[in-house]
Amino acid sequence: MTANTILEYVHEKINSLPDVAHLAVIFDPRAALHWNELVQLEDEQGRTWSIIHYDGNDIAFRKSQRTERTIVWVTASPDSLEDSLPRITLNSLMDIWGRADLLLDASLVGVIRTQLPNETWPIAPLWEHAEILSQNLSVVQKGLRELRRYLPQLAALDNSSIRALALHCLHPDIPVNAFLFQVDTPSAILQTYLDLLWRCQWDDSGVQLLQKQALQAPHVQNEEILSWLNVTSTQLAQYLYLRRLLGQFHVPNIVNQLRGLGLVDVPVEQLETQVGRLLERWDRDPTWRSKIILQAELAFQEEDIHRVIGLLGLQTIEAILDALPHVETPATLYALQSEFIIKGVSNPNFHKFTPSWTNHPNHLLNQLPDTIFTDRVRLITSILDDIAFIDSRRLLPVLAETDLARLLDWYVAEKLYDLEYAHVRADSNVLRAPESLRVALKKHLNNQKEWIKTFLDTLDHTLAQSIQANWTGYTGHPRLSTNVLWDAVKKRRLVPTEKSRLWVVIFDGMRWDTWVRHVRPRLLQVFELAETEKPYLSLLPSWTMVARTGLLAGKLPGDWKNSASHFSRNQADLAAQLFLIPQNDRSRQMIFYSGMESDRKADQLLSGKRYPYNILIYNISDDNLHSMKGNLVELNKVVDTLLDNIIQSLTNMIEPDDTVVISSDHGFVELSEGDSISIKDDDRWQHQMDGDPNPIHYRYISSNNLSSDLDSQYTKDLCKVSYPGFNDKFTSIIGRKWFRRADARGAEDRYAHGGLSFAEMTVPGAVLKRITQKRIKPEITSEPETLTVLEGETLELAVHVSNKGNIELIGQLTISPEPLGDTVKTPIKLLPGEADHFRIPVLGRYRLLPNRQVESTRAVKIILTYLGMDGKEKSKSHRVSVIVTPRTDKIEIDFGGLDNLDV
Q1: DSSP for residue 124
Q2: What is the pLDDT of residues 527-566, one digit of tens each?
Q3: Three-class DSSP labels, 245-297
Q4: Which strands sit side by side in the sheet containing 794-803, from one edge to the other?
Q5: For the range 47-53, what are the long-range contacts, defined as Cβ-Cβ under 8 Å and sequence gap of 24 or more?
Q6: Mean pLDDT over residues 723-750, rounded?
Q7: What is the pLDDT of residue 895?
């Protein structure tokens, strides 16, 4: 049979009629063909057939007769009972039936008997399930062949067999024999029913059919499981969900508690007799568990879960954190998040608890099924992750260090550059949080904002003290940005040629947070680090003219000399001098391109002409700062947009033998209203009379000659800048204060640069090469390598996974205490150079068995499975030894031998 439906079957028969055929009679007692509105049918040969309906009304039928090709569609009369077997009376009109070219029984019974003539079909169940079976004829045929293997030989089909075929039609991926319920105990029937119920998605009618099949399973008395088979699948899902949750937290009187909640309308006492066995499967079958969770959470409201959480006895922040490792459902995690936030904000020491948030979830969200609560959980998780990161730094003392390199490396290693951005990310996400949490979150974020401002200001003043205490040490420091090109090119003795070119790419105005979170990840999709990147400090003031010029010149301002040994600010000339490119050969050897230049210069880059030295300046932040009024999130969205074209251009131009040096000239800070210093115009500068630019800028003044009031009042916030041999003098402001011109008009900028701060001065120095051979190289480490734990004590194991390759690492990390303990699984997705960290609680398990053998936690096995370059699954493992010290104050009584006592 090629037809899958009765309609297809009828069409096949009509298509097969010869050209001389003009009359076909189709018997369709229940009108399953649904031809009520159809008056014509065109077959595959292009012939048109008129359709005339006959339902027992002879007069109406005679009036509608045609002389052309005709299909007489015969159905039962309109007054036939729907629940009874359909009947068609053919006592009249024998002249019509006698001259028909085709008499076709198109009822389900007729079609099945024709196609499968060797079977004995029970009529009543066929009609009962005709709607399903008639749409799946090929599935019925295939399913019947399979079904015969599980029925007694030559046994006639019965009601149970027909229902099994109907259920199989609804889900052909499930073997038909699974629907026979060929088990011999009520518990086994229930297990089979619940397995099928959540193996796939059922509609209400499908669930009812499945319930009927289970209830009428042969040879088994089902009274003890009737309560399970008489409630909806949603009610069962809710019950199992709640029963599991309350059982996990050892809530007393669970039956009464469930009844008191009133969330599920089920006979709880009757269900309790079987629930223990069923919840064993909850632990061992994550797919089955996930489907129950998904269906239950579709039915629960947010307030329902909060009521349930109220029964768990989690009265303190510590109790909520301790409960997190036991979370198995998104709604529960969301409710605990909410409780954590609401209870926490009212605690003045909340900032001491939030860092523990990142230690406890163990990437719970990645292990949970995706339900209607998952998006809310992801949002709150993102907010809490940023809050936890910020608060984890609140206990961090400012490094008592005067060495600039150590200060700089510490600032980057502790990710202090991300404090402001993390706060803005969290603050932006709070706008999408549920109203019930917004006020609490906003309150804590406001407190964090004040701390961040004070903390970063302290850091910046620490940096300033180190610079001011030894100005010569600063100007000669190896981490000054004037050394970026020396380190990347000169010291590496790199000699660019037309075949192996040098590309110096400067992202103007790029802060370290933008570099780490946006620019570097995009670059590392095409390039790889040739050596470890380093942070450098820009020249003061952190203003483009000084900072970028000094970076490209590789020298302090007093040494900016062109080929004629004259002072120059021309960045292209100074870069040529640094690379010792003769003046008469510069047009052949070097091209200097700034994103501000015309498209003709860009065309020159793409023309195919090869320059050994290529210097590219891209304004990704600097130009936008003066017009950008949005927060850091909005600003970096603009950066991402600009990067699309930049990365594509670099990819098109840079070849495998080329070397790329990436850096930035400076960063920026946000100007807060309360931090402004108002400065009146000063005639000493004579800028108006002489037509010079106003020396007062937001973050620096183009002079060392300040008013006595300004000097005395803000001495600790000012850094006087001058370089030997350089006529220009500057005053950079330290920290977050900024200069406001008293006579300024119009809107003021939100962001600016030129001052002395980590945010403005920290710039990267990175050397990249094109990826020519993709490598996947994961690395797993742990702290400590050996864990010594007291019996019954829980210690944390820090697991680090890093991507040392040059393409994205995607896989799954499995962490298993051996031989006892809970396995943690979490997906891994790391860009090149990225790392992820996990804190795993390890319980020291120790027990003496009846045979006097010791069973204890001996190790933690860590396995990373990932796809290799060949597309095949690979794995990398790491093992941490665990030594459990037995407690001497614990007495155990083993009752295992009581059965052998002769009493």
Answers
A1: H
A2: 999 988 999 999 999 999 999 999 999 999 999 999 889 9
A3: HHHHCCCCCHHHHHHHHCCCCCCHHHHHHHHHHHHHHHHHCHHHHHHHHHHHH
A4: 778-783, 794-803, 835-843
A5: 47/19, 49/14, 49/24
A6: 89
A7: 41
What single DSSP character describes residue 136?
A: -
- Cα gap 24→255, rounded to integer Å: 65
Residue 787 and residue 440 in contact, taking contact as beta carbons nearer than 8 Å: no
Residue 36: is its pLDDT beyond 90? no
Question: Domains of the chain by range and CATH?
Answer: 6-106 (no CATH), 304-454 (no CATH), 478-670 (3.40.720.10), 773-885 (2.60.40.2550)
Q: Please state which of the ranges 31-35, 566-570, 719-723 shows the lowest mean pLDDT.
A: 31-35
744: tokens are: 């300024």
In angstroms, rounded to a whole number, what is the distance separating the alpha carbons of residues 679 and 833?
46
- For the chain, what percent of residues have pLDDT higher than 90? 53
Within 10 A of 757 (CB to CB), how many other CB atoms are there?
Answer: 25
What is the spatial distance between Cα 545 and Cα 622, in angstroms, rounded to a whole number? 12
855 with 835: CB under 8 angstroms?
no
β-bridge partners, 732: 700, 719
Phi then psi for residue 665, to 5 deg, are -85, -30
Structure-token match 């009042």, residue found: 713
Report, as an integer, the average pLDDT of 661-671. Answer: 96
Instruction: Assess contact for 731 and 721: CB atoms under 8 A.
Output: yes
| Residue in 484, 429, 491, 423 with CA at minimum distance from that of residue 451 | 423
* Residue 421 to residue 539: CA distance in whole angstroms: 24
Digit-coded pLDDT (tens) for 680-701: 766 555 555 566 778 889 999 9
Cβ atoms of residues 317 and 353 within 8 Å: yes
The answer to whether residue 427 scores a pLDDT higher than 70 is yes
Beta bridge partners of 813: 826, 864
**Scanning the structure block, which residue is given the tokens 């110096």?**
504
Amino acid, single-letter form, for residue 13: K
Answer whether 78's CB lies under 8 Å from 88's CB. no
What is the C-alpha to C-alpha distance for residues 835 and 614, in angstroms, rounded to an integer? Answer: 32
pLDDT of residue 606: 66
Q: Which residues contact 443 (CB under 8 A, 6 or more apart)?
A: 345
* Cross-strand pairs, 855: 847
Which contiguous run of DSSP H or E holds residue 594? strand 590-594
Q: Residue 232: enclosing H or E segment and its boundaries? A: none
Q: What residue type is 242 in one-letter code? A: L
Alpha helices in 310-434 (DSSP H): 317-323, 330-345, 350-357, 364-367, 374-392, 404-413, 419-430
Non-local (6+) Cβ contacts of 13 within 8 A are 24, 102, 104
| Sign of torsion over alpha carbons 584, 587, 590, 594 | positive
Q: 675 φ, ψ to 5°?
A: -105, 5
SS3 168: helix
Whether the CB-CB separation of 486 and 579 falls below 8 Å is answered with: no
Strand 613-619 versus strand 502-508 pairing type: parallel
Q: What is the pLDDT of residue 317?
A: 92
Task: Tell me how far apart the alpha carbons of residues 218 and 216 are, in angstroms, rounded to a whole number.
Answer: 6
What is the pLDDT at residue 741? 85
Element (H, E) at 206: helix 204-215
